Amino acid sequence: MVKSDKLVIAGREFNSRLMIGTGKYPSNEAMVEAHNRSGAEIVTVAVRRVNISDRSQESLLDYIDLKKFMLLPNTAACYTAEEAIRTAHLAREVLDTPWVKLEVIGDEKTLFPDNEGLVAATKALSKEGFIVLPYFNDDLVTARKLIDAGAAAIMPLAAPIGSGLGIQNFTTMRILREMITSVPIIVDAGVGTASDVAIAMEMGMDAVLLNTAIASAKDVGAMAEAMKLGIQAGRLAYLAGRMPRKLYASASSPLDGLIK
Amino acid sequence: MQIVLNGEKKEISENISLKQLIDKLELKQERVALELNKTVARRKDWAEIMLKDGDQLEIVHFVGGG
Lengths: 260, 66
Hints:
The complex is a heterodimer.
Chain A: E1 7-9, E2 12-14, E3 18-20, H1 28-38, E4 42-49, E5 70-73, H2 81-95, E6 99-102, H3 115-127, E7 131-136, H4 140-148, E8 155-156, H5 170-179, E9 186-188, H6 194-202, E10 207-210, H7 212-215, H8 220-240
Parallel strand pairs in A: 3-4, 3-10, 4-5, 6-7, 7-8, 9-10
Antiparallel strand pairs in A: 1-2
Helix pairs in contact in A: 1-8, 2-3, 3-4, 6-8
Chain B: E1 2-5, E2 8-11, H1 18-24, E3 33-36, E4 39-41, E5 56-64
Parallel strand pairs in B: 1-5
Antiparallel strand pairs in B: 1-2, 3-4, 3-5
């Protein structure tokens, strides 16, 4: 294995290039198994109103070992920069963490990002010392604006959130990877299975964030482990430097010494 | 007096601080965050901030998400 291939975001080092979510699991126990088998060090959480009248609800944080995992609060379902900023403030207050996965959504059906709102929120939050990881699409121009606004990494979606389609726009993702080298690129959203993450890593992406692909698998724990292995395989293949593609055959066995 | 708590009107007693309200609702302090009239209320200030009639309070916590 290569000597040190750590993922570095905002000066902080991570061993795992897989980040996973805490949503949609069939049970808290399944979530715990998935987290453990995935090898992930960063898990995302959402911020929502407490149900004052129903006090029986268990607390999510009871199921996450904060010594093992770093919580990354998201601003999911925020449709304006203002809402996202308020949510980030609230998350920071509970966790005392400046990290935030920033989402400003522009469309209900696709959950595609509102890039304008994202840039504005990134600017505002970065100024206040937040470490902002914005979820967006694969637009190079927006990527640069987000980085100028202070983003610590960029997170282009592979496909719509929860769609399980895997990377849909290979060309634009490739362009993004080639042109953006100042911050890590973390593929987020729309991943479906292990080959999707391996492909992302083979493209040279720095990490992948996923939730539904594991939470909605038939065997949640097995899929978590598959994702861990997919990330490792893809990353190693990328570092190994793949062979060139050819249109015609190039024999692997020698041509002399053939019997006639 | 009346405040809006998590989007719903609620009658509460006079002279109650944020901390007292959280205790009354039996919520774990370390697990929730409060936003009073669109601004985050720092936990260290909860005991001193008194609720007023018409205040809008959001009490949030972490739930599963991607």
